[in-house]
What does this fold into?
Amino acid sequence: VLPVPMGVNLVHYRRRHACGVVKFIYIGAVDINRNLGFFLSEFAKSKSEFEFVVYTKDLTYASKILPLDNRFKLLNAVSKDEIFSIMQDFDIGCFYVPETKLYDCASPTKVMDYYACGLVSYSTKVAECATLFDAQSMFFVDESRIAAQVDEICASNRSKFRQMADNGLGILAQKRSYELIATQIRDFLEQK
It folds into this structure.
């Protein structure tokens, strides 16, 4: 048996030059199981200036949990090509799920998309992220201090974000490129 992991296309977008407040993006499902309301509520306790944009198809539920705070925006989901272009204007890509058995085996596709677009990720430490990334390539969510972490991230300079994003993309190039995965599959099939 050969488990085939998610891969990343190394032909990636480059982040455009960013200035101003730190910009966070969350892309994807917003549902009660993900407990995103907790994450956003804790995030809003930060004293820092930032912009946080949520792109989702789940606008009705998301509008109920989005903090009443002008630092947060809710937008309808767009196509993959559009979102890849949009991501280039952000600094940090967010992936959050509660640290429960339900999500312990999550394979966060968006995290790879973030790195492919030159962003660093602020992510729950699900097993796959913990295995691939480290503190030099990802900001890991600590549920007990989200607001403090956001303040620390916002106090960082963008060169740190770029370095962390490059480190993360380097890890994905070494462990999760489609070329590498294709070679592993070919080698596995040749052994049979």
User: Anything to note?
Assistant: The longest strand covers residues 50-56. The beta strands are 22-27, 50-56, 72-76, 92-95, 120-123, 138-140.
